[in-house]
Amino acid sequence: MGTDGMSFVAETGSGHIVAMDGAPEGGGHNLAPRPMEMVLLGTGGCTAYDVVLILKKSRQDVRGCSVKLQAERASEDPKVFTKINFHFKVSGRNLNPGAVERAIHLSHDKYCSASIMLAKTAEITHTMEIVEV
């Protein structure tokens, strides 16, 4: 539902409330993420969840995972994502780099619905770093 100008409040299927807004030049007030930013946020959360779950199932001592997405969009409508890089920072004790790489690939190729959908229009790449804690 619209709240003011181009600001919106959405309720998810699980009953959570999320605010979204547009850029000032498009009538928004820049008070909340834009809808396409929410797409990236959800995709990052989806793949980070997968990576941690896969590493835990692999008996890796994972303590944290963050992922930063950098994306490019088409210049013409529809302005779909054309390139997205996922930079994973995985922390833990004695993490096996091969296991981390495998978890990332499994997420992108098999489990993360969001990144698999985005791969229909975007070139998906990933980088990673492992932090010993």
From TrEMBL:
<dbReference type="InterPro" id="IPR003718">
    <property type="entry name" value="OsmC/Ohr_fam"/>
</dbReference>
<protein>
    <submittedName>
        <fullName>OsmC/Ohr family protein</fullName>
    </submittedName>
</protein>
<dbReference type="InterPro" id="IPR015946">
    <property type="entry name" value="KH_dom-like_a/b"/>
</dbReference>
<dbReference type="InterPro" id="IPR036102">
    <property type="entry name" value="OsmC/Ohrsf"/>
</dbReference>
<dbReference type="Pfam" id="PF02566">
    <property type="entry name" value="OsmC"/>
</dbReference>
